[in-house]
């Protein structure tokens, strides 16, 4: 049975068949979301949210089109929204030894803005940003 036929049955007869859609697409969508954001846990959240959105909006899906394109677009949009929402988070740089007993805060010297207006911080001649 094609995805589009399955969607028609889900809409009209058996909502429980949506589990088959999840089974067909979950692994693929997880790989795609992880490719986009490079975080397996957050990718799983994005895919789960996408499945929920798809289910809620199932009546808006045009069965003459491919379901796979539609669900991938939802995951893509969820990932882009996640990236926009979290772009201000700065990951901790693993090269910094925070357990070395050194007071890292004192070692930081503010160097000012670079030519792009980005704040640069320096510790022991290693630029962090």
Global structural class: mainly alpha
Q: Which class of the largest domain in CATH terms?
A: Mainly Alpha
Q: Report Rg.
A: 22 Å
User: What fraction of the residues are assigned to beta strands by DSSP?
Assistant: 5-15%
Number of strands: 3
Shape: elongated
Number of helices: 5
Query: Main β-sheet: number of strands, strand sense, barrel status?
Result: 3 strands, antiparallel
Explain how this protein is built.
The chain is mostly helical and 129 residues long. It has two domains: 3-86, Rna Polymerase Sigma Factor, Chain: A (Orthogonal Bundle); 90-129, no CATH class. Helices cover 55% and strands 9% of the residues. The chain contains five helices and three strands; from the N terminus they run H-H-H-H-H-E-E-E. The protein has helices spanning 3-12, 18-37, 40-56, 67-86, 104-107; strands at 109-113, 119-123, 126-127. The protein has a three-stranded antiparallel sheet. Helix 3 packs across helix 4. The longest helix is centred in the N-terminal third of the chain and has 20 residues, at 18-37. The protein is elongated. 12% of the residues are buried. Residues 108-129 have low confidence and may be disordered.
């Amino acid at each position: 049975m094609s995805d589009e036929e399955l969607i028609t049955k889900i809409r009209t007869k058996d909502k429980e068949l949506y589990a088959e859609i999840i089974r067909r697409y979950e692994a693929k969508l997880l790989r795609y979301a992880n490719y986009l954001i490079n975080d397996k846990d957050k990718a799983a959240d994005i895919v789960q949210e996408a499945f929920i959105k798809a289910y809620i909006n199932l009546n808006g899906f045009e069965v003459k089109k491919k379901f796979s394109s539609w669900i991938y677009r939802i995951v893509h949009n969820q990932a882009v929204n996640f990236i926009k929402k979290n772009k201000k988070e700065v990951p901790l740089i693993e090269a910094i030894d925070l357990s070395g007993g050194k007071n890292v805060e004192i070692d930081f010297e503010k160097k000012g803005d670079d030519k792009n207006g980005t704040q640069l911080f320096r510790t022991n001649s290693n630029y962090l940003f």
